[in-house]
Amino acid sequence: MAVVVRTDDDCRLWADRAGAGPPLVFCHGGPGLWDHLEPVARLLEADARTIRWDQRGCGRSQRRGPYTTARFVADLNAVREQLGGPRVALLGHSWGAHLALRYALDHPDRVSHLIYVSGTGIDPDRGWHPHYERNLRRRLGAHRDRWEALGARDRTPAEEREWAVLQWSADFADPDAALRHAEAMATPWRGVNRECNRAVNAEVKRELRESDLAARCEALDLPVLIVDGAEDIRPRWAVDSLHRALPNCARVSLAGTGHLPWVEDPDGFRQAVTSFLTPP
């Protein structure tokens, strides 16, 4: 059921809730995209009350800033408070994994479990990024020339969607299904908020250089599950230092999957998450 969440600065956020059970709040990737985690919610709604939302300025939420990590953490707190209750589990994907981690560090008493899916770690030098760029171009294969041509110029809305679909296709391990999966992600197309993307990415880079997230993670006293797609083009060793820093952390790598592991191994993904949320 779709609902509206109002933040403390009166920004309207689109949200959706479904299922029954303990509350599980999702944080989608981007930054600057919209919620793409409905398939994950459908996998888990028999075991949890799933709560999804479009981050501010994105998708169906009101298009206004400011676009800062602190503001997104506060927005997530409004979603949690109005739809989830006093304590929730969090599942974040990609940029959303960093947002969920930051929320847990700022508000550990309001989080029961943290599921960190396909994040890129906390290393300040972001040494994974050159590897990602090389892997991206390699996996694009025959689509690389078109992707580079679109990326080098101003794009029409239709070309922006085409460029995104080509880039997102590299996030899947199976080349025969990659474009189909990427098309599904882009349908319906809600547009990328480039201002949000630039602002938040720049701030995260500064934060990783200037703050000691590893020390804060070492003090985080709640269970964390890291879920990786073994064939994600973002090298998974980028997450190793986060794994080492967290005192209560399990890690699952799903073979034959990329950046969205639930798409290519839904059963394995569901098993990993439900076993973590409801241990024997």
Automatic annotation (TrEMBL):
| Entry GO terms, CC | membrane
Please give a single GO biological process term from the UniProt record.
proteolysis
Keyword tags: Hydrolase
Is the Hydrolase keyword given for this protein?
yes
Domain (AB hydrolase-1) spans 22-265
The Swiss-Prot or TrEMBL record annotates one GO molecular function as: aminopeptidase activity
Coiled-coil ranges per UniProt: none
- Give the family per the record: Belongs to the peptidase S33 family.
Q: What is this protein called?
A: Proline iminopeptidase
Organism this protein belongs to: Micromonospora humi
